[in-house]
Write a structure and sequence with these properties.
- This protein is mainly alpha-helical and 334 residues long.
- The chain contains 15 helices and no strands.
- The chain folds into 2 domains: 125 residues; 176 residues, Hypothetical protein af1432, CATH 1.10.3210.10.
- Helices cover 69% and strands 0% of the residues.
- α6 packs across α12, α6 runs antiparallel to α15 and α12 crosses α13.
- The longest helix is centred in the middle third of the chain and has 53 residues.
């Protein structure tokens, strides 16, 4: 039995939830930090210092410079915090010389405040970097957990190697065509990889039986969705996989199991998964039958619109060219 690593193209979709990052998000954050610094600086330069209350306002304003520094540390680690502190210093020091020239006591306080800003930048920047590192380790541990469970399933069912990954890739492509939000795509990816995790508790004599199952054997086999739901329910970070694990054998007309859900009662990710799972089952070798071509598989799936499958999901399924489904399989099996 080969020890198949999960393909990188699939693995990238099963990262643990993390703070938002990306070119657009980071640009917006930089703009927000720049606006904060500009507002505080403008208020400093435009506020008179003739009375004690106005002087107090200046003290408050210079402490507000800490806000963009802390935000930079949270969003961009130590480097971002130091850049923000440098920007604050460049804009703040001229204010000290021009508006408070000759006031040695106040100059000392203001330069001490500048030192405080740099200290805050260093401390929060280091702490922010450590938090980011811890988050990355958590994401790696999450991926390792999913990979280990998938490997355990592959070790049980030799005839279905890469099945979970192919279904995951199919489901993600179908979800994109359907217009599913990114957050649901992530739960779809994890659920697709772990949909059969409950089969770990099914005896080998049933799981790998080449012929038809008896009624008693079917009764045991049909328990695997609920068993799988209990398994992933024990791991909080895998909770978003529960919909597919529990509902992947439900049918649109209510004739499925384990709960006999009808139509929209079945979670959307499970309805999308059902099409992807059947596509792979029909086009893959099984002990009890040979695979069918993708065109034939599409025809067979479309015949089940409204009974097994959500007609709306099938509309998206029809829009994806058969050649693309074949390329997806080749990319996973390669």
């Amino acid at each position: 039995m080969r020890n198949w690593p999960i393909k990188r193209a699939v693995l990238k979709h099963i990262k643990a939830p993390q703070p938002l990052h990306g070119t657009t998000t980071d640009t917006r954050r930089v703009i927000l930090i720049a606006i904060c610094i500009t507002i505080v600086t403008t208020a400093h330069w435009c506020t008179p210092r003739d009375t004690e209350s106005l002087h107090l306002l200046h003290v408050v304003l210079r402490k507000l410079y800490i806000l963009p520094v802390v935000l930079s540390a949270v969003w961009f680690d130590l480097r971002g915090a130091l850049v923000a502190a440098l920007a604050v210093t460049v804009l703040y020091v001229p204010h000290v010389f021009f508006q408070w020239r000759g006031d040695l006591g106040e100059n000392f306080n203001q330069f001490a405040e500048s030192g405080t800003i740099w200290a805050v930048a260093l401390i929060t920047g280091v702490l922010g970097g450590r938090e980011r590192t811890a988050t990355s380790r958590l994401a790696a541990a999450y991926q390792a957990t999913v990979s280990a469970l998938v490997s355990a399933l592959d070790a049980r069912e030799h005839s279905t190697e890469r099945h979970s990954e192919r279904v995951c890739a199919y489901a993600l492509r179908l979800a994109r065509e359907f217009g599913v939000a990114p957050a649901l795509r992530r739960s779809l990816a994890v659920g697709a990889l772990l949909h059969d995790v409950g089969k770990i508790g099914v005896p080998d004599s049933i799981l790998m039986k080449p012929g038809p199952l008896t009624d008693d054997e079917w009764l045991l086999m049909r328990q695997h969705p609920e068993s799988g739901a209990r398994i992933v329910g024990e791991v909080p970070s895998l909770d978003d996989a529960r919909n597919i694990v529990l509902c992947h054998h439900e049918r649109f007309d209510g004739s499925g199991y384990p709960r006999g859900l009808v139509g929209a009662e079945i979670p959307l990710d499970a309805r999308i998964f059902a099409v992807a799972d059947t596509l792979d089952a029909l086009t893959s070798v099984r002990p009890y039958r040979s695979p069918v071509p993708y065109a034939e598989a599409r025809r067979m799936i479309e015949e089940e619109a409204g009974s097994h499958f959500d007609p709306g999901v099938l509309e998206a399924f029809r829009r994806v060219p058969i050649e693309e489904w074949e390329r997806i399989r080749q990319g996973i099996d390669r």
